[in-house]
Design goal:
This protein is of the alpha/beta class. It is about 35% helix and about 10% strand.
Length: about 200
């Protein structure tokens, strides 16, 4: 069942609430004085769903400053990205690995849809969360997914923001170091492969 729990009428109502809230947010911030008249604002898509960013029911707020960006999350496929290997959440059981030809195609198709429908139309996109569970998985498969998603995002002119869960992620907060130096090296090499126009 869809996240709005119903058919098209319920979907339109759910999207309408988010559209209204986003417009109120922009209006209130822009009218509140100081630098708020021109600062960049981030608006959230319904349910942070990637496919909702270009759904016809999604309305980009009217912004006199024209300084808006959209944010979505990326946890696809959920049996790998959300659940740990063997973890049973009732709606599915986590799988051990990721990286088949079809899974790479799914990733790149999704990011290409965001680029075509948002970035190419002048709407900046921030992937505000993405990662995979490290539970009962090898560092190699964790690294493969996280680096691949980062590159798919960055190469299309979007901003990647890795969601790192304390105790189970890539960054050790007590030592302020990454657990996997290969992961850090590969992530840091991505921007050089896709230089961006600084104008």
């Amino acid at each position: 069942m869809d996240s709005w729990k119903g058919g098209q009428t319920e979907k339109a109502r759910a999207f309408g609430y988010v559209n209204e809230l986003n417009q109120l947010f922009v209006d209130i911030v822009r009218k509140s004085g100081g630098n708020n008249a021109k600062r960049h604002l981030l608006v959230e898509i319904y349910n942070t769903g990637l496919e909702h960013a270009f759904d016809p029911l999604t309305k980009i707020p009217d912004d006199p400053a024209k300084h808006l960006a959209l944010t979505v999350h990326y946890y696809t496929p959920p049996l790998f990205a959300i659940l740990g290997n063997g973890e049973d959440a009732g709606w599915g059981v986590g799988v051990p690995s990721w990286g088949t030809e079809q899974e790479f195609k799914e990733l790149n198709d999704n990011m290409e849809l965001l680029k075509k429908n948002c970035v190419d139309k002048g709407i900046p996109v921030i992937i505000g969360e993405y990662a995979c569970s490290s539970k009962n998985r090898t560092q190699e498969v964790i690294r493969l997914f996280n680096v691949s998603v980062t590159e798919a995002i960055y190469s299309r002119g979007m901003c990647p923001m890795l969601w790192d869960v304390q105790g189970a992620g890539q960054y050790e907060r007590t030592t302020s170091k990454f657990k996997d130096p290969v992961f850090l090296e590969q992530i840091m090499a991505i921007p050089a492969k896709y230089p961006r126009n600084q104008n």
